[in-house]
Amino acid sequence: MSDLNSIPSLSEDELETLGVLLEEEAERQDSFDFFAVHGLMTALIAGPEEFSVQQIWDSAFEENLGFSKEQKAQVDTLLLQLSKEIQAWLDSGQDFPVPADLTLVDDEEEPPLESWAMGFMTGVLLQEESWYAKSEETIAQHLFPIMYASGLFMDEPEMADIDEDLDLSNQMCANIPAAVVEVYLFLHAEK
After folding, report:
1. Which range marks the domain in which residue 38 is found?
2. CA-CA distance, 33 to 146, in Å (whole number)?
3. Helix, strand, coil % over all residues of the chain, rounded to 5
4. Position 57 in a domain
């Protein structure tokens, strides 16, 4: 456990800058927004393989970026800082602070939590074999709330049942912060 006050974090201005740059890129082309990038990064850091910021560039963005050289360098720096913040939270053992309301009820087209969870599941699927190598059943149990919130598995009957019950849906989403830490601790128990 670490002192939560010692967790490195982006300032409000840095978070806003990163959010705006990622949102502008997402509007230019079909790339990840801030929430999806955060989810992807969380999965890659929590996962069993070594993390690098390059994985974010390869997975979240089109090859032809709309960023200027300066903007790309700025995003790179901010992503690196954000990765340190995510790592510190995971190491703290505290429930993970998902940067979105823990509900799928939203007036927007895609709720931020759904975007975050979709990004997280993208990270899992990129390294699927190594994620499930230790115990497929345990990982699947830990990931279930995130899988549900991502919307990627909505054709599954059990997901549809949850969707039909708002209280159950919100309960499932409320389990995500603990689930992130549980999966991280499970995957890194020997380290």
Report:
1. 7-187
2. 17
3. 65, 0, 35
4. yes
Question: What's 42's domain CATH number?
Answer: 1.20.120.740
9 vs 146: CA distance, rounded Å: 24
DSSP annotation of 93 reads T
In a domain, 94, yes or no: yes
Of 168, 185, 172, the residue nearest 117 (C-alpha): 172
Interval 62-112: pLDDT, tens: 877 888 899 999 999 999 999 999 999 999 888 999 999 999 987 667 789
* pLDDT of 125 over the 80 cut: yes
Q: Is residue 1 part of a domain?
A: no
Q: Which pLDDT does position 158 carry in this prediction?
A: 84
Cα three-residue angle 102-107-108, rounded to 5 degrees: 85
Are 113 and 40 a contacting pair, CB within 8 Å?
no
Q: How many domains does the chain fold into?
A: 1
Query: What's the predicted TM-score (pTM) here?
Result: 0.92
Of the candidates 58, 163, 29, 33, which has an alpha carbon nearest to the alpha carbon of residue 103? 163
> 90 is written with which tokens?
């995971």
Query: Could you give the angle at the alpha carbon of 116 between the alpha carbons of 113 and 120, nearest 5°?
Result: 135
Structure-block tokens of residue 172 = 């499932």
